[in-house]
Every structure is written in structure tokens, then in C-alpha cells.
Design brief:
Helix content: 10-25%
Largest sheet: 4 strands, antiparallel
Order of helices and strands: HEHEHEEEEEE
CATH topology: Alpha-Beta Plaits
CATH class: Alpha Beta
Radius of gyration: 18 Å
Strand content: 35-45%
Number of helices: 3
Structural class: alpha+beta
CATH architecture: 2-Layer Sandwich
Strand order of the largest sheet: 1-2-6-3
Number of domains: 1
């Protein structure tokens, strides 16, 4: 699956807005997507470092229009925690040489909420 097929839309609620300071972003995602696929899609689309992904299946609600009753569709929600303080990481190779990872990550998702 392509990253554009996995991440469908941001979920904007009071609770999700309060969690933005903690680096937690809420998305509506494809029902078949796994946590690993969601993390890779968010990293590729928004150029951030994902620390944790929590997913949940949201059941559809029963709706009624006049005499007819129906149900809205079920969907999947993902709460993605990103690294708000990305730093350069260094590690040792086989020869004892210190190597730094120089990939630059953003500390927030600017596209969230149309900013």
C-alpha cells in the first residue's frame, strides 16, 4: 500500500488538539493497515520520527432517517506519537568507529489542521 492510501485524514477533536503539545497526532487510517505500515507512512509523508503507534477500531453508529434505520461505516483510528526533540544519534561500528546518523527530522507536523 502507498502512504497516501494508508493515511486517510486527520481527526480533529478537542482531545486530539490537547494531545498535540505531547507530540500525539490522530489520524483516520485504512482498516487493513498495520502499526508498522502506519508508522512508515507518517515518517515518509511528514518527515518526522515516529516513536509509537496506537490503533483502535471505531464501530459505526446507528442512524435513523424517518422510518429507515441504518449504520455508519466502521473505521480505524491511529494515535501516532512523534519525537518532539529529534537529536543526532551516534553508534559504534565493527572497527570501533563512531558514526553519526545525520538524517534531519521535523519536530511537529505542520500540515496538521491546515497550518
Amino acid at each position: 500500500m502507498l502512504p497516501e492510501d494508508i493515511i486517510i485524514a486527520p481527526v480533529v477533536t478537542e482531545k486530539s488538539n490537547d494531545e498535540l503539545q505531547e507530540g500525539k497526532y490522530t489520524f483516520k487510517v485504512n482498516k487493513k493497515a498495520t502499526k508498522v505500515e502506519i508508522a512508515k507512512a507518517v515518517e515518509k509523508l511528514f518527515e518526522v520520527k515516529v516513536l509509537k503507534v496506537n490503533t483502535m477500531n471505531v464501530s459505526g453508529k446507528k442512524k435513523r432517517v424517518g422510518y429507515h434505520t441504518g449504520k455508519t461505516s466502521d473505521w480505524k483510528k491511529a494515535i501516532v506519537t512523534i519525537d518532539t526533540n529529534p537529536e543526532e544519534k551516534s553508534y559504534l561500528t565493527k572497527g570501533g568507529k563512531s558514526v553519526k546518523v545525520t538524517k534531519k527530522y521535523k519536530d511537529s507536523i505542520d500540515e496538521f489542521m491546515g497550518a
